[in-house]
Amino acid sequence: MLEQQFDFRTSSGENNPIHAMELNRILGMTEKIMHTEGRMQTIIPFFSVARYSHQIPMIPGVLTPSFCLILQGTKKLHLGQDIIHYHAGDYLVSVIDLPASAQIIGANKQSPYIGLRIDFTTKEIASVVMEAGINVKPKDKKLNTGAYVGKSDADLLELFIRLLKLIDKPQEAHFLSSLIKREMIFHLLMGEYGHFFLQQVFIDQQGDGIGKAIEWIKQNYSRPFTVEDLAKLTNMSVSALHHKFKAVTTMGPLQYQKQLRLQEARRLMLSGSLNVTTAALEVGYENSSQFSREYRRLFGQSPFKDIKALQKNVAVETLENS
Question: Under CATH, to which class is 3-202 assigned?
């Protein structure tokens, strides 16, 4: 199991007072607009703020394409066999849907966890790549997991400052926010981990192969299938499909399907629209007992107890992208 530790205060062997000052400035701007618990959607459709004033235990969920910056606090992320800790000044980028679990550590009323989130799509990334004339095909042909942690710099923090200044200016926000978002994507593409972005754009644009496999499962997770069926659909051998799929998502195709099913069933039950049996059928389970066993294995308790506990918890929102 790989465990990664990130801390901007020691990343270069010494403190960075300018970076810390910019981070504190953003924190101050954020606290002026965010006083409640949980996640708040701003007037900018793709921009949200999260605040938690207490520790939150590990909560399974799904990473969706997004860029998340921690302003204060620490988060622990389980992604496949990897454990990633990231702190104030670190950011997490996810470029495909990835089942994962997240935990907020050490938060309290005096020092709450605060994070910012930008949602994007691979099409938006591809658009920036083409307009900027960046080479789409990555030099490194080795597939990497579709998420990574990096460290913010002054230019990136300045873009967040500009975005936060638009929160109380609806007309300007409507026009300028999307331009700032494109600048952020460009900055990430040109940064140290830009090749991850490029690789995922390349995968997404392929007419067949691993990108098609991931998209097919996302659209058809309630349908039964075999790895052999998926291999034929994507014009790949079974061994190649399994190897590449696991490299990108940290798990095999059937496990990926199972986690998507269970996450969707959890969402349906949490919304109050379906009971356990109906939710199980809705996501493709024919046997409610099997559903309950696999649900308990992923979430740690029975569907009924899990949903009841979540409904009492202010952290009902998924934590992965906060």
Answer: mainly beta
Q: Which residues are paired to 90 by β-bridges?
A: 151
Do the beta carbons of residue 145 and residue 248 sit within 8 Å? Answer: yes
Task: Please provide the DSSP assignment of 56-112 as one string.
Answer: EEEEEEEE-SEEEEEEESEEEEEETTEEEEEETTEEEEE-S-EEEEEEEES--SSS-
Those residues with Cβ within 8 angstroms of residue 101's Cβ, 6 or more apart along the chain or in another chain: 58, 59, 60, 61, 77, 78, 320
- CA torsion sign for 85, 259, 145, 318 is negative
129 residue type, one letter: V
pLDDT digits (tens, 9 = 90+) for 128-183: 988 988 775 555 555 567 788 889 999 999 999 999 999 999 999 999 999 999 99
Going 171 to 172 to 177 to 182, the CA torsion angle's sign is: positive
Query: CB–CB of 31/38 below 8 Å?
Result: no
- Residue 225 dihedral angles phi and psi, to the nearest 5°: -155, 165
The CATH classification number of 206-322 equals: 1.10.10.60
Read off the tokens for 211.
């990108």
Cβ-based neighbours of 112, under 8 Å, separated by 6 or more: 51, 52, 53, 72, 73
- Strands ordered across the beta sheet of 113-119: 38-41, 47-52, 113-119, 66-72, 90-94, 147-151
Question: In terms of Cα–Cα distance, which of 116, 127, 101 is closest to 66?
Answer: 116
Is the whole-model pTM more than 0.85? no
197 contacts: CB under 8 Å, gap ≥ 6: 93, 95, 125, 129, 185, 188, 189
CB 275 within 8 A of CB 267: no
The length of the chain is 322
Q: How far apart are CA 93 and CA 144, in angstroms?
A: 13
CB-based contact 75:103 (threshold 8 Å): yes
Where do the CATH 2.60.120.10 domains begin and end in the chain? 3-202
Q: What angle do CA 305, 265, 54 make, to 5 degrees?
A: 55
